[in-house]
Design brief:
Blueprint (H helix, E strand, L loop, with lengths): L2 E5 L4 H12 L3 E6 L2 H11 L2 E4 L5 H15 L4 E4 L11 H26 L6 E5 L6 H4 L12 H20 L4 E5 L18 H12 L10 E3 L2 E2 L3
Parallel strand pairs: 1-2, 1-4, 2-3, 4-5, 5-6, 6-7
Antiparallel strand pairs: 7-8
Length: 228
């Protein structure tokens, strides 16, 4: 049975990804920093909950140790946790956004690598964004052109670059990033846009279920390779 850990999975795309992977037979660990919400989400889905705050080294270490003790390996890691940081453009907000959206990927992936190496088909999926694409944000024909979210966009550009670098450094592990699609979540509520999270989650599931010969080091959306 495939063992999967999803960060930030108590709601939104992470929650729906967990639901769909459970339907495919995965053993899914829902990582969430809020224990009450995480336990509730896991109970609703029939998943397992592990406390996990991607901005806290001790929390990340403990979460992966718990998965290790229970499963002895990790087959799929989905780095989904993220924040928008739209309230201000200043140093403290920038630190918080990058700590969650980029440094969080480093914390969790580094802690997960020993477990992933024990898998027959290790896979990492980083939920990035087309807002981190130079091509998209400078293209007047793209919706990203008119979205003033500099900290989120920059942190997602970092997430995509981390994807490429991890794929190069660990050729035995598939590491891919994706733009899941504009989704109606808590983060996008102020914009009043987006489709149901379940639709975007299908894009995450696609990368989370790649075979051993699947691609690595890519950035895609539902239409294929995304220029960045």
């Amino acid at each position: 049975m495939t063992v999967t850990l999803i960060t930030g999975a108590n709601k939104g795309i992470g929650f729906e990804t967990a639901r769909q992977l459970l339907e495919l037979g995965h053993t899914v660990y829902i990582g969430a920093r809020d224990a009450e919400r995480g336990e509730k989400a896991a109970a609703e889905l029939g998943a397992r909950f592990v406390p996990l705050d991607v901005t806290d080294d001790a929390s990340v270490t403990a979460a992966l140790a718990a998965v290790d003790a229970a499963e002895g390996r990790l087959d799929v890691l989905v780095n989904n946790a993220g924040i928008l940081g739209a309230e201000a453009v200043d140093g403290p907000t920038a630190l918080r956004v990058f700590d969650t959206n980029a440094v969080g990927i480093v914390r969790v992936t580094e802690a997960a690598l020993p477990l992933l190496r024990r898998s027959a088909n290790p896979t990492v999926v980083n939920v990035s964004s087309s807002l981190g694409s130079f091509w998209a944000v400078t293209n007047p024909d793209r919706p990203e052109f008119g979205l003033p979210l500099p900290l989120y966009a920059a942190s997602k550009a970092a997430a995509t670059m981390l994807t490429v670098q991890y794929a190069k450094a660990h050729p035995g592990i598939k590491v891919n990033a994706l733009e899941p699609g504009t989704t109606a979540t808590d983060m996008t509520a102020a914009f009043g846009v987006g489709r149901p999270a379940a639709e975007s989650a299908r894009n995450v599931v696609r990368l989370a279920t790649l075979g051993p010969d699947g691609p690595t080091g890519t950035l895609t959306d539902e239409f294929g390779t995304l220029r960045w």
